[in-house]
Amino acid sequence: MLFKYKKYEYTKSKSKKESRLSILNNEFEEVFLKILNKETLSNEENQLFLSGFNEIKKYLVSSLLLNINKSYENKKPIEQKLSTLYSQYMYLYPEPDDFIYRIREDLDILCENSIYSAIGLGKKSFNKENSDSNLILFINNMFFYESLNFIEKNINNLKNEKVNLTNDLGDITKNEDFIIKEVEVEELLKSKNILDSVGSDMYEEIKEILLKEEDIPSHLEEIIIYIKS
C-alpha cells in the first residue's frame, strides 16, 4: 500500500511561546525560497542555507522519532499507523542492536530528499502561493509520508526474505534427506551384491524404485523382495 501525500495534519502548539518550527521557518524560509526560484545567493546566504538545511533536518527527524514514541491513544490514525509499522520494522529487523542507528540514518536521508524536493530538486516542490502552510510544514508533511512508505516497503521486503529463507531451508532439508536415503539404498544394494548380479541398467532401475518408493514392476518383484529381506 502506498500512502499518498496529503496536507500535513499538524496541530499548532497551545503554548504562547513561538514554536521551534515557526522559529526555523522565519529564519530560513526566505533563503530556501530563493533557491526554489533559482535566484543567486550571496556567500552569507549560502552559509545560511547550509545551516538551515542541517537545523531543519535535525528538528524534523527528532520530532518524528519523538512522535512515534508518544502515547498511541493520543495520536491521529495516520500517526498510529506509522507507530505500528515502526514497531513491526524494529521486530523484523535482522540486526536489532543496530536498528536505532540505522533507522536514524535512513530517516536523515529521507528528510534530506524531502528538503531537496521542496526547493525544486525532486518530485514535488513547494508553492508559496498555492499552499496554506509554510515551507517547513510542507517539508515535514512530505517527510512523514516518505517515512511511512519507506518503512512499510522495508517490512514487506523483510517478510518476503523470511518466506524465501524458510523455503530455501525446506529445500535444503529435503535434499539432505534424499542424500541420506540414497546412501542407505546404495549400501543395501551393495550388501546384496546387486550390481554384479543384474548389471548397471537394471541396478539403476531398482535403485530408482527403492528411492522413490514407486510401484514395483512384475519383472522385478522377486529381486526387490530379496533385497528387502
What is the average of the pLDDT values? 81
Q: By helix and strand content, what is the structural category? A: mainly alpha
Over the alpha carbons, how many angstroms does the gyration radius reach? 33 Å
Number of helices: 8
Unreliable spans are 8-17
Give a quick summary of the entry.
The protein has helices at 20-36, 43-68, 77-92, 99-121, 135-191, 194-198, 200-212, 221-228.
Descriptive overview:
The chain has 229 residues and is mostly helical. Helix 3 packs parallel to helix 5.
Q: Layout of helices and strands, plus pairs?
A:
Layout: H1 20-36, H2 43-68, H3 77-92, H4 99-121, H5 135-191, H6 194-198, H7 200-212, H8 221-228
Write a concise keyword list for the protein shown above.
229 residues, mainly alpha, 72% helix, 0% strand
